[in-house]
Amino acid sequence: MEECAGLCGVGSSRGCRCRQQCQGPAEMAAAEGKPAPARGPAEKHVEADTAVRCCAGSGGIGSPMPPPHCSLQDLPVEMLVEIFAWVPGTDLPSLAQACTKFHHILHTDSIWRRRCREEYGVRENLQNLETIGMSYREVYAKVLHPYRHILGLWQLDTEHYRTLLNVVVDGLCITGWTYGPSLNTHEDGPLQFKPSFRIRLTERKSTTVECMEGLHIRPHKRHVQIQKDRFTLQCNKTDHQKDLTARLREELALVLRLGWEDRYQYDCLAYRRLYLPPSHLDDLIRPGLFQGIYDPFSLKIVMLSFHGNYARVTKITGVSNGMLEIHLICRIQLPDGEFFRNFNELSQVIQEIDEQVIREQQQQQQQQEDGIEESEGHGWQSPAQPSVGESGAAASEEQPVPFVLPVGTLTRDQNYPQTCRMCFYGVDTVISPVLAYPKRFPGVFILFDENHFGFIWLELKYFVLFVRVQNTFQNASLQRTDIKLESLKEDIKRFFKTSGWEKKLQNAVYSELSVFPLPSHPAVPPEHLKEPLVYMRKAQGSWEKRILKSLNSMCTELSIPLARKRPVGEQKELLNKWNEMGTDEPDLSHFRPVYAPKDFLEVLINLRNPNYENGDSPSFRTHLGLIQIPLKVKDIPELKELFVELGLTTGQLGIDDSTQVPPELFENEHVRIGQKVLAEQDSAAAQQYVRQGSPTALRAELWALILNISSQPEDILYYEQLKTNVIQHDLLVDSLIYKDVKLTASNDDYYFVFEDYLYQVLLCFSRDTSVLGHFAYNSASPPRSYIRGKLGIEEYAVFYPPNGVIPFHGFSMYVAPLCFLYNEPSKLYQIFREMYVRFFFRLHSISSHPSGIVSLCLLFETLLQTYLPQLFYHLREIGAQPLRISFKWMVRAFSGYLATDQLLLLWDRILGYNSLEILAVLAAAVFAFRAVNLMEVTSLAAAEDTCCHCSHLACDNAPSPPADPLVTWTLSWMLALLTSVVITLEMLPKFSAPQFPCKLVWESVETQQVIGAQHDSHQRELLAILHEAYEPR
């Protein structure tokens, strides 16, 4: 539906939308019925004799020719009432401000009665309103005008399942009618709807939205948020959740998974406006809505639209997983004046056309790549095929031919027409999460008459008959005479630029490219997209079994179920202390973390490639470190090329904004460019910008821009849904989250104050089924459980926890640093969720990805072995392998091991480079800084104690730096802040481990001059990025 609604639905739903947007504040106040300025008693009513006197001597009604100075004020009141009744209601407030006379006349209820009837279809008698003491002016100003955007045809905006909503003025109510598939059993009948909500026009004080769904005896309140072409509904009561779930189960005719129930059980639904396509003379038949039987459960509604040489049939209701495209220039000639009776003959004809179409599409794609202007349409065309402009007339003049389904074709409707007019080649493209790439199902499109068409899927040998929907819908037709098919592409581009959607689409595409892997060959199996190496997948599977075994044993030992529904009293208690959960002290003494980083490290140490020589005795192939996997990792030159912005010639925030450097040298200009980036709202520019660090005041907005996070009303409602699920259901992982927060963040000097936020975010995160989407590119798989008593039956399998992520010791530290940036729980949650599905999941799953924890460990050990061999060999000989010390740093992304300001600078670079490799480089830099001290230790405990205080790298036990104050500042900065990484690595090849801190020589004055001279070129680069129109990336 997206594509068809997008092409056919650009613009407003009503012709007066532009005028509504152009109103000033005073005009809107008058339209909403706000009081006018005070006036005398003589002005309260319009008298007929006064009106006559106003027109006397000025060329009134009886004047044969009005004098030149005659104005609209001189006309009689009766004529002005008739004239004003034809003026759109949104323009009447402007007339009311023209003069006192017009203001009095516009209080005449007959004017507003006609406006209500002409614009909104209100047909009620005035006496019905007078009985309750209301006027049509009040109805228009208080109800119809504020809710004008909600009228029309809407479609449920979900990822997979969709339905139809028709909002109309029904009597003295605005009623939303939902399409009920169970109410429609035959395609020839009109669509049957059931009431979903209503807004009474007779509310004098404040209008309320009443929900009419569920098992309640009487309607209850519902919350609605209306935008231009989108609105959301949230039911304020949730005790009809089972009814909503049952309705969806009835319509889908399958057992809902936990994810489906979580998405719908709160009755918070988002709708987007649906426009019916306009009709043109050259269309084969009038476009619009049709209904047909796809499956044995219910009818499905589709929309037929015409787009030049193509016609499209898009699903409006049901599971939206494809689109049917008809090639109008590929007409099929019927043999012997009747339809094919032999299915094999029909299949052969369609296959020939399909092969020709595929070849021409490939040729066109090649021509586009070579810069050759593509020809319009396909080269193949039947000799009898009319041109596009003549197709509509040709279809009406075409003589019908007998039609019988070919032998062997299945259908659920035997009452199809006995004659057909024309047949065309078509293809159904199905997109499914199960399929690695879209699948094509060619077939034949059969036009019977103005109200009937059908389609035969050759591969499925299945025929569906589509019948025109007889219902009429108000406010659903798109009337845009200024849009032409020839200029549609340019019109859409222009609309995107003027409306601001161009930048939003660019950010969305850039965000997707940053998350999902590059497209591979279509024949690649889905499991290879998750992880290409088989032994890695097996190791991850074995690790997941160990985790589940630990979780199940905990359930058995403690006699605790995986999930349970909280009693009503417990729900109220949790809701009351939602913002003070840190004060709760549950008994968690019997709970233990499912696993800790050191357990995960042992798994990685034992990881082996079965196709690689893995002898017990050392050889030249043996890796001296703990990781024995032959993966390709970057060396120093490649790291310098990757982190080029961290070099000495580029200014860095956290260094050049220190007290020793004047702010006008770098800081002021860097902040100004950051503000420019935020004003442009471009994700790519923001990502490039944060590579040099984010100003503290701008960091929160920059990160949200990079992650493409914007707090929309539906996002806040979605967070409230997750909160409601936490309150209603208790999961075993809740206790694991409580335990982890108590053991980690609550004992941290920086993060203990955010304990309540951590509980709120992590508990909601465990219920979020949208997190399951990241398993498409994650080597891990979500754990599955079964409903009690249905073990082993796949239909009753559910993901547990609902997000598929089992927390481990230290998991809460991924959230804690973000609490310094965001004080709104819903925004904090969105940022953390996006950070997790982009980066953090790779730190606790086994994969060969360059940012995966296996590659990070190997990169860390390779750097130390290559450039600090004496240090590495010494630690190895005393049994203090460096990876055993640094592994917990990298698994937590240094959260809890660096000071918060330094950690946020580190995460700036993670977002800027879209990579976690900088974690391994920083870990190696820490060992380089501690090299002299580490060469003196004799045990693992002593080595850990030397390296444990990463937040104070320039500590007292380090050797004293040279006396030069700039060098002193440089050493402290170089190793205490993230931007030290490449500088440290640049110096690594120049020294050996024991002499590093003492022999480091840095021409400080020249370095300062380089930084001051080069920062201008960097700013020009960023500005160039902003000023370019960002060609398609």
Automatic annotation (TrEMBL):
Domain Rab-GAP TBC: 693-914
InterPro entries for this protein: F-box-like_dom_sf, F-box_dom, Rab-GAP-TBC_dom, Rab-GAP_TBC_sf, TBC1D19
Skewed-composition ranges (Low complexity): 360-369
Region (Disordered): 360-393
Domain F-box: from-to ranges: 69-115
PANTHER family: TBC1 DOMAIN FAMILY MEMBER 19 (PTHR16110)
The protein, known as: TBC1 domain family member 19
